[in-house]
């Protein structure tokens, strides 16, 4: 019969309790880190979706700005969680009669749409600005 050394017997017994605890701690730290990353990614997707919706609302309001017949106007409202405000004011027209331009153009106005909504520690906001001609009233 062959005698086994104590080192051979000890090596074949498997992992010690300390080794298992170290492995579980490493596994739990790794899973915690992955969980935090996934949570942050989901939050970022949600915020990006809110910015996309706010931008689409602002673009829609700018598209309706051609209906403004007054050079000075301010309109506001709400849509779902979003608060919006559209403001228009006269823009200097470089083709106006006082300037030495050979062509005269329609009166222009700036139109700014600001959309805000609650989020995080403070309100989030998107603002778009454009220039449009003033719609002339038909007689």
Give descriptors for this structure.
single chain; 139 residues; alpha+beta; four-stranded antiparallel sheet; 2 helices; rod-shaped
Characterization of this structure:
With 139 residues, the chain is of the alpha+beta class. It has one domain. The chain contains two helices and four strands. The chain has helices spanning 6-11, 17-63, and strands at 73-79, 82-91, 108-117, 124-133. A four-stranded antiparallel sheet has the order 1-2-3-4. It starts with 5 loop residues before the first helix and ends in a 6-residue tail after the last strand. The model has no long low-confidence stretch (mean pLDDT 82).
What's this entry about, in short?
38% of the residues lie in helices and 27% in strands. The chain is an alpha+beta fold.
Task: Record the SSE blueprint.
Blueprint: H1 6-11, H2 17-63, E1 73-79, E2 82-91, E3 108-117, E4 124-133
Antiparallel strand pairs: 1-2, 2-3, 3-4
Unreliable spans: none
* Overall form: rod-shaped
| Alpha-beta content class | alpha+beta
Largest sheet: 4 strands, antiparallel
Strand arrangement across the biggest beta sheet: 1-2-3-4
Number of helices: 2
Query: How many β-strands, per DSSP?
Result: 4
Structural domains: how many: 1
Mean pLDDT: 82
Helix content: 25-40%
Distance between the termini: 119 Å
Rg: 33 Å
**Topology as a string of helices (H) and strands (E):** HHEEEE
Strand content: 25-35%
């Amino acid at each position: 019969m062959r005698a086994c050394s104590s080192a051979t017997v000890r090596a074949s017994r498997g992992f010690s309790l300390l080794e298992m605890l170290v492995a579980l701690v490493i596994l739990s730290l790794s899973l915690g880190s992955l969980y935090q990353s996934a949570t942050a990614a989901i939050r970022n997707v949600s915020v990006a979706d809110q910015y996309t919706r706010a931008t689409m609302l602002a673009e829609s309001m700018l598209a309706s700005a051609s209906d403004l017949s007054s050079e000075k106007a301010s309109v506001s409202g709400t849509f779902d969680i979003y608060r919006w405000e559209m403001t228009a004011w006269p823009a200097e027209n470089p083709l106006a009669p006082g300037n030495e331009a050979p062509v005269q153009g329609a009166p222009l106005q700036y139109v700014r749409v600001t959309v805000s909504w609650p989020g995080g520690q403070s309100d989030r906001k998107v603002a778009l600005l454009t220039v449009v001609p003033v719609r002339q009233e038909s007689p």
